[in-house]
Specification:
By secondary structure, the chain is α+β, with helices and mostly antiparallel strands. The protein has ten helices and 19 strands. The protein is elongated and about 70 Å long.
């Protein structure tokens, strides 16, 4: 597995510290696993990170100590890392850490901390008469993660390219008489054989009327001639997620299936063409939505056009309609997200076409290049 270098981590730390300075924070408590990994290269399922102006404090239990020690002796060592052993309670260890390092104004990631957890922190700080004030923060690390650095781009480029090697096995598995579940199993086996460490999400194989359900999972239904089949799958390579959807037909497609497919394919092309620096993410969504509305399928497209990709399968930026509760996003070089318009007609079926797209200095780069024509299998 390739890990970001110490120099890459140092640049990430500098960006987060700039944000802390702007908010007059002495430290930030980091709790989501993806954010901890982004800053420290610790990929365990448990841990807490506290970033201050001059150090990173990683709280881990016995299970992860040897892995962290070994990485700290490599070119991927986290700069200025101090490891704190957690013998029992992570929450107790966190309060002890904050008290010892002497920080007084401490941010926490409000979107990832439960009310109960925050209340315990507050009550414990008060009971121990510690001079620590907790302040909620919003998306400090997520905003940094939204624009990928060179090492992340290279990993996501490789993850998308490897899907080309997987597709022949995927198409070979889709045939009349096969079940959705067996097709999903074949896809997942091909992904493992191609070198992905795991699936990025539960594989979607949605056939016939099930293809009208955008997030349907593979079930026992048998594929039948005339079905549209939505195949949505992705893998994790070196910690980073790729995502792809293609829709195929079992046997010759009906005129209505071709009409819907062509509309979605054209909506996909319009959205991809709209991707360039300086454009609002919502404008990419509007480009896809306009095509489908013009074809009489506007009401059949009920989800956003795309989502960011990275250490999580769904992350920022969101590519959808403007929302009052979320800030507008302007596309910036280094952003990577999906383009996945769809049209879903209850009782008939649906179509979705999805690719991974990088915003470049001059426009965009498709990271997934598998052909988009409607295949009859």
């Amino acid at each position: 597995m390739a890990w970001p270098s110490s120099a890459v981590l140092a640049r990430r730390h500098a960006r987060i510290r700039e944000a802390l300075d702007a908010l007059s924070l002495d430290a930030l408590i980091v709790t989501p696993a993806a954010n901890i990994r982004y800053l420290s290269n610790h990929a365990g399922s448990a841990g807490i990170l506290v970033i201050t102006r001059d150090a990173l404090h990683l709280l881990i239990d016995f299970r992860y100590q040897e892995a962290v020690r070994a990485r700290q002796e490599s070119t991927s060592a986290c700069p200025h890392l101090r490891v704190w052993e957690v013998p029992a309670s992570y929450e107790e260890a966190l309060i002890a850490c904050l008290a010892e390092i002497g920080v007084t104004t401490v941010g926490f990631e409000a979107a990832h901390v439960t009310v109960a957890r925050h209340a315990w922190w507050q009550e414990t700080i008060a009971a121990r008469r510690l001079d620590i004030a907790l302040r909620s923060t919003d998306r400090i690390i997520e905003q940094a993660r939204m624009v990928k650095d060179a090492s992340e781009i290279e990993t996501l480029r490789e993850a998308g390219a490897k899907l080309t090697d997987v597709m022949p096995a995927v198409l070979a598995a889709v045939r009349p008489g096969e079940t959705e579940q067996r097709v999903a199993a074949a896809i997942e086996a091909a992904m493992r054989d191609a070198g992905y460490e795991r699936m990025a999400f539960d594989t979607i194989v949605a056939s016939g009327p099930h293809s009208a359900m955008p997030h349907y999972r593979a079930g026992p239904r048998t594929l039948t001639r005339g079905d549209l089949v939505v195949l949505d799958f992705g893998g994790v390579l070196d910690g980073y997620c790729c995502d792809l959807t293609r829709t195929v037909s079992i046997g010759p497609a009906s005129p209505e299936a071709r009409r819907v497919y062509d509309a979605v394919r054209d909506a996909h092309a319009a959205a991809v063409a709209a991707v360039k620096p300086g454009v609002a993410a919502s404008a990419v969504d509007a480009a896809a939505r306009t095509v489908l509305s013009d074809r009489g399928l506007g009401d059949a497209f009920g989800h956003g056009t795309g989502h960011g990709l990275g250490l999580d399968i769904h992350e920022e930026p969101r590519v959808g309609k403007p929302r009052a509760d979320l800030p507008a996003v302007t596309l910036t070089p280094g952003m990577i997200f999906t383009i996945e318009p769809g049209a879903y007609l209850a009782g008939f079926g649906g179509v979705r076409i999805e690719d991974d797209v990088l915003v470049t200095e001059t426009g965009h780069e498709l990271l997934t290049t598998i052909p988009r024509q409607l295949l009859a299998l």
